[in-house]
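Fold it.
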Amino acid sequence: MKLSKLVEKLSIRVLQGSLEHEITGLTSDSRKVMQGGAFVCIVGAVSDGHRYIKDVAAKNVSAVIVQKQAGYEQYFEDGKLSGDSSITVIEVDDTRFAYALMSAAWFDYPAEKLFTIGITGTKGKTTTTYMVKNVLESCGHKTGLIGTIETIIGDEHTPSHNTTPESYEIQEKFAKMAEAGCEAVVMEVSSQGLMLHRTAGIQFNIGVFTNIEPDHIGPNEHSSFEDYLKCKAMLFKQCDVGIVNGDDEHIDQILDGASCTIEKYGFGEDVDIKASDKELLYEHGKIGTKYHVSGLEDLDVELCMPGNFSIYNSLCAIAVTRHFNVDKDKLKKALFEVKVRGRIEIIDVHKDFTIMVDYAHNAMALESLLKTLKEYNPKRIVTVFGCGGNRDRSRRFEMGEVSGRIADFTIITSDNPRNEKPEDIMADIVTGISKTSGKHIEIADRAEAIKYAVDNARPGDVIVVAGKGHEDYQEINGVKHHMDDRELVLDAVG
């Protein structure tokens, strides 16, 4: 591909060289550059790609893309890149943005060959993507998925490292989906992904907003809740139709400046797709919800998942898949059968009590789940959880306090201690529980903790194994050891 084609949608300044080079590859990783390739200098949190300009020049790249005001001049000699004027150097305002658009060009704009659905929000992204995929697939629309747990292309499942991959990887996956005959793709779009321009250049057919609550605020993520909200809102400046939770208190800010048409879902009056007549469905070993949908759709829905958040997720899926004119009976069946790994995942092992695995790994998520389960009036709620090492200690105090306040019994255990002692992390959780009257026990070994919960379960109990969800490892001193909560539950039952 000619360099001119690669940068055709960018505003550029050519510092040296020609745009007529034939480019053999594209990367932002100096270790992966190839002769004749293009290297994009990304300014990252840990490393600055501009530092490797001389290294990649020595590998005979054809083009280097630099960022304005990034200080790249210090790596030049006599105003030239390593004295070699045959290498084209292009300056852009933002190399992350440039990398996204160049990646789209490199793969021949695959997003234009798919019906693209992007879902953003603090909670519900993962479950909703699976609901949308299940419905579309059941109605004959082959659909790819990109999200927190995995990427799915046909029968190929690849574990994920980021909720929203880097821009090159997104475009590569889109290209594979188009080649595999996918008609649509549904993907989780994180605030980090939007902030770092990973989805730049993609005009989503549908953009979705589930909800927003204070989260991901910190020195390595968002500087404030306002910044977090602003990044989420970016999605609605790059989609054709915005499908949003009309009940969220921040919806007006999310839609400020939106360039798309809007459809709202929720329980409120000012929505296009409305839920009403909610019923709780509960028998030992199973827990779910039933409700009616009115407005742009008219149907009764039954879910094998509990609570209002499950209703919101399914309403969203209904609102999205409505644009495909899906069969209502197939829609209802797909929503009833959907099961997401590690997201309120009920492990069907015993008729006398309910046991579920969930990713709730902070106080906000745990409180939301436990309050939802309280509505079902179980005999007891028993939690099994720990907290990750080398992370903010306040999370431990908060999760301990939440479990002690809402659950009937807490089993404190280990969860990715990393380079800390599990006992020290557990002691912090105990500090939080001590602010309540909640009963608890400490069992450092996670397998033993889960077995204790199962062995001591009473008829009517709901046991929540929280924190790890879909993860299948335990990280200890830099080494990941296989550990899957689902397997531990099955082993405990015998």
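The radius of gyration is 25 Å.
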